[in-house]
Amino acid sequence: MEVFISQITPGTSVHKLKYELANIIHSPPFREPSSSTPPPNFEVFLFPRKRRSPWRDAALTLPSLELGTKFLQWYGGPSPRCTLSLGATRVQFQPSRHNVRREVLERIWRQPFQDPRIAEAEELDVQRLEAACVRISTIQFGWECRDHVYSIEWEKSCSASLVYVPHRREFRVETKGPGMEDCRIIAIRASQMAWVSAGVHQPSGVPTIFFSLSNPPSFETASPLTDMIGTFQEIFEVSIPNKPRRRKWTAFDESHEPIAAYTSLAIRLECSSIRDLDIFRDISRKVHIHPEDFAYHVERRGLFAENLRDEYSMWARRQPWIVAFQVEALLRAWLLDFMEVLRLLRPIEQLIRARGWEYTAALLRDFMARAKELFWYGEDNLRGPAATTNDLPATPKDPVELFTLVCARFVHKPMNTAFNTSDAAAPFHCLRVTVTPTTMLLEGPFPERSNRVMRRYYRTQDCFLRVSFQDEDRLQLRFDREVDGRDFVSRRVKSCLLDGITIAGVHFDFLAYSQSALKEHAVWFVKPFKHVDDIGYMHIVDAASIIASLGTFKNLPFDPHLTKCPARYAARISQAFTATDASITVDVGHVIYGNDIKDSTGKRVFTDGVGTISPQLAKEIWRALQERKRRGRRDRPYPRAYQIRFQGSKGVLSVDYMLAGRSILLRPSMIKFESPDSLTIEVAKAFHKPGAYYLNRPLIMLLEGLGVPHQVFQDLQDDAVRSVQGSVESLERSARLLEVHGLGASFRLTSAMLGLHKLGLDPLHDDYFWQQMMDFATNHVLRELKHRARIPVPNGWTLVGVADVHGYLEEGEIFACIDAPDRTGLIFLEGRTLVSRSPTIHPGDAQVVHAIGRPPAGSPFERESLRNTVVFPIKGKRPLPSYLGGGDLDGDEYNVTTMPELLPRKTYHPADYDPAKRKYVDHDSTMADVAEFVAEYINSDTLGIIATTWLIRADQNRELGILDPECLKLAALHSDAVDYPKSGQPVPINEIPRYLFKEKPDWSAPETFVGGGGDFYESDRAIGKLYRSIDLPALRSVDRVARRKEYMQMRLGDDREGALAYIKGQFRASQPSRRGNAVFEAVRGRVAGFIRPNDFDDATVTSIWELYCTYASRLRAICADHTLSRSAILTEEEAVVGTIVAKCSQPRKRRDLMGQLREQTALLVGDVRTELDGEDELPLEESLRRAWIAFRIAAIEKQYFGARSFGWTALGAVFDAIKEIEEERTVSRR
């Protein structure tokens, strides 16, 4: 209820008024002193003073009508029973003429009452922080040298101030120009600070503040009008829209720009007086930052001087491109200065002459990973006030010394890694560039799944770059209401797309993107190169010729205006850049063009995106794909559905038993452009097994809104937690935990652990590596449960959708046959079934349908069960997939379960949105138009904002929840945002509804949030209760210094020959290696049943030791390149499990990074397994012998980086080889 308050004495603060009201409302007769319930919360809003009135007015919002009525009975009206006086004036209370504001009511219901005296004190603290100012006389950017000297590389004498901005948790160095000139700003977030110092430099006596950062600060300018408008607003208590926002830049000013990319991590500020140091220390103490009492010795060494940069640039242009790329990467990663790089040039040239450019590039990649470990991630031991190297034996302190040691130790055994590969089907080795506001970061090459374009030009892979646009902290560029992001993206991102980028003297132009990459703000660039075509002609290939070769996009009868819509045109081009596996070539005569099956109106398509394929061709494709796998993996049943790209078509092909020979049937809904010369079926995904079903927060919010009780979700989560807690009780349970949650899959840990379990081994509690892996695995699962509500659903599945082309199913029916690898026999869903598709955001996005169960006699499903798909009917008013978040059948996957407890008590009609309007241009689109669209997309990508707002808004509205009208509007906007990459029509951010009130539910707090403050309330929704029911246990600490000691002692201390001689000596020793180790002895005993365990030869030992060294080098690079920050390199255990333990304010970034980590390690392990298995004609016993030798080498090297995971990889190869030998012997006895 709202109460109007009048005749408030001028000068009364809202805190004073609230305090006086609290004394009334929290006392009898409104609340008894003995009451155990919390005091009721209420809200007071003080209206601006009217010009001619001597008084002020306010609105009091109380949490209930009952309390408001009672309050007015005592204090309301002209003659109240009780009065409240402020000074000499009696305050008047009367019922408000306005309805209570819903958002205010929701807020006071959810937030506990805060003593206004505490709120006032906190407000005053913030005001004092904002008013505190440190006077700065000189700003310096430079380099922290390895001899503990700070080299000043750029400086500016000025009258500046250092202030702290509490609501952004950032320090700002501000320099105001004369008159109306913009103010220049260096913004430093607290999260960026590696360490900070405040001390007096000796012998000069200059007080200095030093910031050592993990990533560059934000360089900004602000118009002086901004401050003037802010002052005007404060004085006159008015709100002015469209205030000028700050602008973002790549450097402090033009003179700083040439070296900003290299010197922005070390900022030294000279203060005007000692008093300024005291002010800075006081600010730091209040915001929990602890500066060291330390001041660097300073020199002006000119490490980034123009003449050095020019000398390096001239050298780089003369080198093989991939070598220059790796050297440039060292500079861009802040590992070396230009003077250090120039000292390395001659050794690098000598290496190129002696070993070739490919070997040199691989060595430089290993050098970079080791340099990060030593100079970057370990800088707590090498830089700043705590610098010491006494605990690291024989630590190289100089890059040239480290390079010499790496050269002596480096072993390179090519494992499917050659750029000039002769296999077009091999993984594509991708060079990556990340463009940030101040610099470009270079990484790779990383092996990735190839695509149509890369397969065509597989001999020139190094001519392509994958370029992503990110913020300095490697997170996505985020919308910031205070900064003009559109202006910055136009200047930084669009200029790269339109003008290209130059790296080490080589120019690259924008080429295209894939749809999945666009979501990550990543695109392809290419440099011109020579290419010899299939008939022997050589010609120059560039971005324009590649696009022209893809097919015909103009004047298509089925899409005549395609080229007038840049986003749609780019989406069609992107089909050629989708990651796929080439399978087999199909003759044109075997391609059938059929019709789509539509509803009675002809508008809705039941077969949208799905065609069919003959059983024979489906088997041939599977056989072609399996030929690239290791031989033991070829006995799985062939998939009944493939997601494909073929010519200019895309979508799914499902098996139709009525198609004969090698045939496929394409429908109009699949054909996007014309490319008749491309006859290879490219497989984006083969659906050979069902996916697991996991709940998530949006689905839980939706199902709860449809009547599913909270306890259903709680029981499922409790089961998952119990599974985690019991996972270390046996190796079998450990293996199942990893399998259920998709962990350790790259290293095939589940299979290896089950193999050990079958040998009778107990959990490996004495093995710190196993313990750490399981700690990381359990932490990962619990973190996913707590922060995402990712709860596994037993007997739930995720299946690709296909159409019932034979018309057997009726409206509202589905057919689903599951062939799960861990289950015996086929599973047929029967009865009432919940079906949904992620993301769920509209009340109608989850439906209950009828699954028909086992194939009825005489039905088409008796002939072909279409296992691991969900079959939708082609009858009814509209296609069932379209009910589910606007789904179709071009590869969308659907969640299905018959679990009775999850079936909602009610369902809603599905959403029915008109297609998003397309954004057209008045000419045929060019790649410049596409570049404009990409820049606009990065500015206007609001999909995540809409989804998050929907979830929070549904939580905030206790009464309506998911039926809140604004939630329904958000669902419609979400549909438009999903279509944006193809329509080109963005969802304006000002159309997105705001939160009901500013406080957010506790479950939405980022995992980096440490508590405190009133920004979050305790959610009473199911996802809030699930969130609070899980406490993440503290992780066992990793002794990184001890590991680095071990890593240094041998890995850099021995040369190749000495290390190999040691390994051979261990093999020749009379006693087998690692006796007394239970795992080693058990595996040795198992191996002894098939080969002689002590049998070896020097050549095989040498070959596999080289394989191990190459593996360790590549794994080290993967761990160094997939970190969230510079705080620590990924541990080997994280890489094996496939998780990243570090917290992140953008969980999606960590998920993307974990996906890349798993992809990279899977390809690496696959390469190792291929080498260990040998050629197909190699006897299985020889494969076993090679795997056993690899396991022995890992046991010998076990204390060094890479050996433990190599051992688990070898162990899996041992068990697989034994299984194959046993199967072969069984077959031979028959």
Task: Please write out the topology.
Elements: E1 2-8, H1 14-25, E2 43-46, E3 56-61, H2 65-75, E4 85-86, E5 89-90, E6 92-95, H3 102-110, H4 116-131, E7 134-144, E8 149-165, E9 170-175, E10 183-189, E11 193-201, E12 206-213, E13 218-222, H5 224-236, E14 247-249, H6 257-263, E15 266-271, H7 274-286, E16 297-299, H8 306-318, H9 321-332, H10 338-355, H11 357-376, H12 399-409, E17 428-435, E18 440-448, H13 452-456, E19 464-469, H14 485-499, E20 501-503, E21 506-512, H15 515-519, E22 522-526, E23 529-532, E24 538-541, H16 543-549, H17 566-574, E25 581-585, E26 591-593, E27 610-613, H18 615-626, E28 641-646, E29 649-655, E30 664-666, E31 680-686, E32 691-694, H19 697-705, H20 710-725, H21 731-740, H22 749-758, H23 768-788, E33 792-803, E34 813-818, E35 827-828, E36 830-836, E37 846-852, H24 860-863, E38 869-872, H25 880-883, E39 893-897, H26 927-940, H27 943-956, H28 965-983, E40 1000-1001, E41 1016-1017, H29 1022-1028, H30 1040-1051, H31 1056-1068, H32 1078-1087, H33 1098-1121, H34 1132-1137, H35 1147-1173, H36 1180-1196, H37 1203-1229
Parallel strand pairs: 8-16, 17-19, 26-30, 27-29, 33-38, 34-37, 40-41
Antiparallel strand pairs: 1-3, 1-6, 2-3, 4-5, 7-8, 7-15, 8-9, 9-10, 10-13, 11-12, 12-15, 13-14, 17-18, 19-22, 20-21, 21-22, 23-24, 25-31, 27-30, 28-29, 28-31, 32-33, 33-39, 34-35, 34-38, 36-37, 36-39
Helix pairs in contact: 1-4, 8-10, 9-11, 10-11, 11-12, 11-33, 14-26, 17-26, 17-28, 20-23, 20-29, 21-22, 22-37, 27-28, 33-35, 33-36, 35-37, 36-37
